[in-house]
Write a structure and sequence with these properties.
By secondary structure, this protein is mainly beta. It has 1 helix and 9 strands.
């Protein structure tokens, strides 16, 4: 059976449109934080929720409970180089990031399970729990943001910000 080129083009267009609509229908945009250390890539993919008039810290993000650290799929960390994150060795590879919020010190959780939905957390897969430095933002930030601030060719600061909370931890390529 011969398929016309017009039919093939129509099917490609419909498939592309469906994929684009699926991404646009998400309430939280999906973003990537990237940095290159020692010539190697480190990337964090995450869903970026918005405040939208809600109280975030202590309510939507409850204290004392593991948080998915974003929206939708679990937040992923992929590193092509071995890292030292806040004094903890993290080998090159793929991981999931969670956090344990509190009114005081937050913990960054590096978890070995990957590819799951954000609320599917398995504590037995934790590689490490690392203290984060918590400071107040001068003005509320509407969107949850993860970024790297490069401090040298082999080091950066990982920064998480939302509402009036800023969390950070040093990251160094080993």
């Amino acid at each position: 059976m011969k398929i016309s080129s017009n039919l093939v083009l129509a099917l490609i267009f419909l498939g592309s449109s469906a994929l684009l609509c699926a991404q646009e229908s998400r309430i939280s945009p999906h973003l990537k934080a990237e940095v290159e250390l020692k010539g190697q890539s480190i990337a964090i993919n995450y869903g970026s929720p918005r405040i939208r008039g809600r109280q975030i810290m202590g309510k939507l993000v409850p204290y004392g409970q593991v948080w998915r650290t974003g929206a939708d799929e679990a937040t992923s960390l992929k590193t092509a180089v071995d890292l030292d994150i806040g004094g903890t060795k993290v080998s090159a590879g793929s991981y999931t990031i969670y956090t344990l919020p509190s009114e005081g010190t937050w913990k960054l959780i590096i978890n070995k399970q990957t590819g799951q939905w954000g609320t599917e957390y398995d504590e037995s897969q934790d590689l490490a729990r690392i203290d984060l430095t918590k400071t107040a933002l001068p003005n509320p930030l509407e969107e949850f943001t993860i970024k790297f601030q490069k401090t040298s060719p082999d080091a950066a600061t990982l920064v998480l910000e939302w509402e009036t909370t800023k969390l950070s931890v040093p990251v160094r390529a080993r």
